[in-house]
Amino acid sequence: MTETTINALVSPEGSLEILSNHEVNRLKDKSEGGLYRLFRQCALAVLNTGVETDDCKSLMEAHADFDVRLVPQPRGLKLELVNAPAHAFVDGSMLRAIREHLFSVLRDIIYSYSIPESASGFRRDDPQDITNLIFHILRNARVLQAGRQPDLVVCWGGHSINQQEYQYSKEVGHQLGLRALSICTGCGPGAMKGPMKGATIGHAKQRVKNGRYIGLTEPGIIGAEAPNPIVNELVIMPDIEKRLEAFVRTGHGVIVFPGGVGTAEEILYLLGILLHPDNADLPFPVVFTGQQENAEYFEMIDKFIRNALGDEAASKYEIIIDDPARVAQTMKKGMKEVETFRRAMQDAYYFNWMLKIDPVFQLPFAPNHDNMLALELHRDQPVHMIAANLRKAFSGIVAGNVKESGIRQIQEKGPFEIAGDPSLIQPLEAMLEQFVAQNRMKLPGATAYKPSYRIVSRAA
């Protein structure tokens, strides 16, 4: 990949980052226990904002000579960038949004790793400690705003969508913006960018000065889904499970646009939580939406959900086709219900403490060949556990498609194998085939999509 690069010394944008000697040394440490490699990977990802790629491994290889170094200063620190992509600069100066994102990476990586080390008695497998860690990361990033009425709509959907689907997501965002609602997405391109871009126009028309465009990501995915330019609050969570919990704890409702395996993972995570008996009375508006051309797509998703999780799961969402205004009206009405409920229960508007999340949805799942084949994909378990294990299957496919570690495993050992009850995995295989046929697995590239998974019988 031939591209102009720039060497630059960059000052913090926003709050001045103050680090201890120990933190600086961790960031410089290139060993397995150090943070240098993680920091470099995330920094390179944000410097590639706006670049159409979803292959983290290829991105890292294309910029093998990129380096980022900490330069201590009397008033804090600066970052020295070596061979940084030139498109992150205008007339020799880094774009302000990218500079903000760069120091968000620094802030979140340091904070995510320092809390478990410094907090007395912190346990990585304790559900309450996990939720508290998520709260502290979000609070440190100034995402949690006390006193603000519920207005945050989480938008999920594919990064690999066609132009018509993108325009539809943008129009939905526009209608949300006209109703002074803010947007939270996975921060990348496609259905993550469209709603934010549309909302900026809606906010401008209504003279909304404090519109929010929050991007929540994690180190494994940020290289494949670099922050889009609209994001004005970027947060890097430690892993996919904490990213998903951050979505449902901070968001007040969810809109799902057409997508691939990542979107399916998010849907199963959300439904698995909403199906927990303790959450039965919790208002949480969920809408699946797309153009008329997407009606069959959502029929497929709905059929898969009803087969795997039952009709009760399907009662947790509403499907609205080709009606952006109605989607926004449904969300606005849902926000009022959330506000009324939270006030009555004296629960915070900015963080959903009452939401019950089973530990199976919180503990990190490591996608590798052994773990993928060992997934419990059968019906002899509670319905929320079926959702949890299907979520892990989709998470593994995402890793094999776009995450550097997953791509390497597939190259070394071949596709992940998935086995289970035919009544679950046959519909799963059929849906995955549709995702492939509709180009929802990866961004269109020079080579055809090669599946990172293989459905096998349990006897194989």
UniProtKB/TrEMBL annotation:
GO terms for cellular component: cytosol. Residues 335-456 form the Pyrimidine/purine nucleotide 5'-monophosphate nucleosidase C-terminal domain. It is an enzyme of class 3 (hydrolase). Its EC number is 3.2.2.4. InterPro entries: LOG_fam, LOG_family_nucleotidases, PpnN, PpnN-like_sf, PpnN_C, PpnN_N. PANTHER family: CYTOKININ RIBOSIDE 5'-MONOPHOSPHATE PHOSPHORIBOHYDROLASE, PYRIMIDINE_PURINE NUCLEOTIDE 5'-MONOPHOSPHATE NUCLEOSIDASE. This is AMP nucleosidase.
